[in-house]
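It is worth pausing here to work through a concrete case rather than discussing structure prediction in the abstract. The textbook approach is simple: state the sequence, then state the predicted structure, then interpret. We follow exactly that order.
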Amino acid sequence: MRNPITKMHFPAQIILLGKFQDALKDIVGKRILVVGSSRSVALADWSALFPQAEVTVFSGSLPHTPALVLNQSTVLAKAFKPDIIIGIGSGSAIDLVKGVLDSVPATFIAIPTSLGGGEMTNVYGIRTVSGTKEGKGGRQYLASTVIYDPELLESLPRHELAASGINSWAHCIEAFYSVKSNWFGKSAAMQAGRMWPTLLKQSYGKPLDGTIRLQLFEAASLAGFSINACGLGLHHAVCHVVGGATGLTHGVINAIALPKTLAINREMAPQAIRLVEEAFRVNDIVALSQELIDTLQLPRSLNSLGVSWKTMEPLTDSLMAAHHLKFNPAALDRDRAQRLMHAVFTGNL
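Step two, the predicted structure:
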């Protein structure tokens, strides 16, 4: 019997480092749509940047890309008919552009201001009106150009930077233990996975110098590349289910869930977790994850944020059906799923 073919995608992108205004000087377009939040789009005078083009700005990006926001931005894009769409902001802003591309094909330029790594992936998710996260994937959603401007991290509040960094570290962990093979993705996950604990400690409560800011984006970019290559698992299945139901920001949910999902995966797939620890040069990744979250003063439980058990109780069924579980190193049983959701709610496994 022949072994199945292993397919490893290595999509082409242009990655630029430096001041984003300078990087955009060579961009030629007739109609440019800028998409982001009110905070992120205020980082530039877009009409002045593109004096020869017609420019329109959509500033309504929100966490988890609600379906209503996607509809509003799509209506604007259909009327404006851009040839270039620039997404500037967090992963939600970048996901919003990907959603718009379903209806309005255009050249996609991503300028991240956080550490989620969505600029390196060809998937996106939205929050539906019924409180679920739904996603799509395809090469058409991959930004053709990514601009990393380290100075933009100065605009990110420190608690958001910490939560965003934990999310990126979780990307590395999940990509590395994923059952999906990709040499490049595993190598990227290992490199960034080693970087993140030190970077998070160095960047907490201190001024960020240029070297640290560049390293933060390097680790985030590698982590984003790794999940695009290798996929996600149990941890992000939990985060997306909870995010859809509660609307809490993705980074904060990551911080609450990571020690618990790692502990459950260590029960089910101890060898896979041990391989992560060896690759990342960590003795106990469950303990380290909790130590980092406590050091960064991120929350431990959903109930501490006002989420009710009534909201959480039905989510076990949603978790058991989550598509990310297909790449997890072990199958999740219902008993563990219930324990895990209760632990995310209370803070105790």
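Step three, interpretation. The CA atoms of residues 170 and 258 lie 7 Å apart. The longest strand covers residues 84-89.
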